[in-house]
Amino acid sequence: MPTQSVRRGNGPSRNRAPVEPRRPASLEAATVADHDLDHEASFRRLDFLDLDLSDRSADAVEFEQCRFRGTNLSGTRLDAARFADCLVESSNLANLRVERSALLRVGIATARMTGVHWINGSLRDVMFSQCRLDLSSFRFTDFHAVTFEGCNLARADFQNADLSGVRFTDCDLTGAQFSQAKLTGTRFANCSLAGIGGVTSLAGAIVARQDLIALSYTLAGALGIRIEDEDGEPADRR
């Protein structure tokens, strides 16, 4: 299977809503005995319901039109994997480590993804909803038409990622790292942006008015600006 390449650029497709996954008419029930992770395995139109696939290691695995519900992938390592037209619901992906891999038309909802590492990959037409993504890392990953809604992204690491056009809505991004990231047209609405790193990389981003207060203190700190009140005391940052 060819490795997914990372494409840079700011084409118009980045600024649209994600395309929904193409759902099959029916799904076959997957089992660990018949559908365990293995190198170069290919899975199509399968329902991974309440399966334990944790602590596995596999290269070049492909999932197409699959659904994961209550699935445990925690601690698993994947390289050059591809997920296309898949749904992930109420599953455990904590500390999942993935490199050089792609998500294409994927919906992820109410998933535990604390500490997930998706490095040097590609996400296109992906929707994250109500996911726990604290301490996650998406370094050097390319995003096209991706949205995060109601997600906990505290201390997430987006260093060197291309987030152009990504939409963050009702997300906790406290302490997230954006150093050397591209954020042209990236939208933040009703998000917590306190203490983010690499704040100067937000050039070209779009921030809702109510989010500017916390962001202004972070930006001032990055520029070495001291903010004082009328008595010359450090201003309250609440």
Structural description of this entry:
With 238 residues, the chain is mainly beta. The protein has helices spanning 32-35, 212-222, and strands spanning 28-29, 42-44, 46-49, 57-59, 62-64, 67-69, 77-79, 82-89, 97-99, 102-109, 117-119, 122-129, 142-149, 167-169, 187-189, 206-207. The strands form two sheets. Strands 1, 2, 3, 5, 6, 8, 10, 12, 13, 14, 15 and 16 form a twelve-stranded parallel sheet that branches. A four-stranded parallel sheet has the order 4-7-9-11, with no helix packed on it. The chain is elongated, with a radius of gyration of 19 Å. The termini are far apart.
Short characterization:
The protein is mainly β. The protein has 2 helices and 16 strands.
